[in-house]
Amino acid sequence: MSPETSGKKREIIGVEGMTCVGCARTLENEFRKFDDIEYSVSFDDKSVTVTYSPEGYGREDFEKAIESHGYRIKK
Q1: How many angstroms separate the CA atoms of 37 and 59, rounded?
Q2: Burial class (CB within 10 angstroms; exposed 0-12, middle 13-18, buried 19+) of 69
Q3: Which fold has domain 9-73?
Q4: Cα separations (Å) of 47 from 5, 15, 23?
Q5: Residue 63 in 3-state DSSP?
Q6: Rounded CA separation 48/73 (Å)
Q7: Using an 8 Å Cβ cutoff, are 35 and 72 in contact?
Q8: Which residues of 48-62 are buried (b: 16+ CB within 10 A; e: fewer)?
Q9: Measured between alpha carbons, how far is 69 from 75 in angstroms, rounded to an integer?
Q10: In terms of pTM, does the model score above 0.85?
């Protein structure tokens, strides 16, 4: 079942300032704090992919979490 048919939303968020694998690990640790989401952090692509229920979170929540560690969101 795709995210769209299950009522879930999928976002790919580009991250500026992710310069090493340790940076990716920092974001993985941050995203573990969210309940009921699926995520993957890609150092190679400099992005975070998140699948979530829009009733619980919005893209802004994930962007704030990324920015709280000094990274910027690619626009």
Answers
A1: 12
A2: middle
A3: Alpha-Beta Plaits (3.30.70)
A4: 24, 5, 11
A5: helix
A6: 10
A7: no
A8: bebbbeeeebeeeeb
A9: 18
A10: yes
User: Residues 24-65: pLDDT tens digits?
Assistant: 999 999 999 999 999 999 999 999 999 999 999 999 999 999
Residue 55 is encoded by which pair of tokens?
């009733």
What residue spans of the chain are helical by DSSP H? 21-31, 59-67
CA distance 24 to 46: 8
Domain borders along the chain are: 9-73
Structure tokens given for 46: 């400099």
